[in-house]
Amino acid sequence: MGNLASAIGGVRPEEASILMELKAGSEEAFASLIAQYHQPIYSLVARTMRNPSDAPDLVQEIFIKVYRGVRGFHGDSSLRTWIYRIAIHEVSNQRRWWRRHCEREVPLDCECASEDGEGLSLLETLACGGDSPFDAAAQAELRERVEIELREIPAAFRTAVVLRDIEGFSYEEIAEILDVQLGTVKSRLMRGRAHLKVRLAPFMNARRPAASVGSARGTGKSLASGRVAKGGGQ
């Protein structure tokens, strides 16, 4: 047990105990790990793949890789970062397989417009909430549109946006997960936000007259005041 403790010395204290149990082959510890990470990993996979219907099978494969590889994990990063790194790697493998075997993949190498991409909070946009039934319906429509457009931006940028703006990882953690430089993370995030902003612009412009009507009726105050992207938290 002492060797296990020394092997995971770089892991955060709250993770060390469960990691020692995982390395010892505890099925209970693995079940606890799945319960903790299944939903966030599923959300990540579904949002970073072009076909979300493939997510359940891929998530299962990810946790198999986690189970088989945990004995080789030496605490060079947090357990959470390591699991997400495996997830991103498996998504990348799935995309490569899709490109090799399918003809329907849309090219994702287009250059984005020179937009700064600031002012768009996906975490708030995709959260549930609303001040009225009108607001709730408008928010649901916006969330659906964001999810659709998110899948249409280049894969590398999409992954950075999901990890930062939805999953809440720091720039440093994202660099660890993707195994890239910090500057690359910031560049991908900026360009991903810019792509999404450009793609959402026609939708947002089309909504403006509806926002004015809602305000006149006294039911769309959040739309008229620009708070359509504000959620009530998950």
How is this structure best described in words?
This protein starts with a helix and ends in a 10-residue tail after the last helix. The protein is an all-alpha fold and 234 residues long. It is built from eleven helices and no strands. It has two domains: 2-101, RNA polymerase sigma factor, region 2, helix turn helix motif (Rna Polymerase Sigma Factor, Chain: A, Orthogonal Bundle); 122-224, Arc Repressor Mutant, subunit A (Orthogonal Bundle). Helix content is 68%, strand content 0%.
Question: Major sheet: size, sense and barrel closure?
Answer: none
Structural domains: how many: 2
What is the tally of helical segments? 11
| Approximate helicity band | 55-70%
Detail the poorly predicted runs. Answer: 1-7, 103-120, 210-234
Task: Name the shape in a single word.
Answer: elongated
Distance between the termini: 39 Å
Give the SSE string.
HHHHHHHHHHH
CATH class of the largest domain: Mainly Alpha
**CATH topology assignment of the largest domain:** Arc Repressor Mutant, subunit A
Overall number of strands: 0
Derived from helix and strand composition plus strand pairing, the structural class reads: mainly alpha
What is the second-level CATH architecture of the largest domain? Orthogonal Bundle
What are its keywords?
disordered C terminus, elongated, Rna Polymerase Sigma Factor, Chain: A, 68% helix, mainly alpha, 234 residues
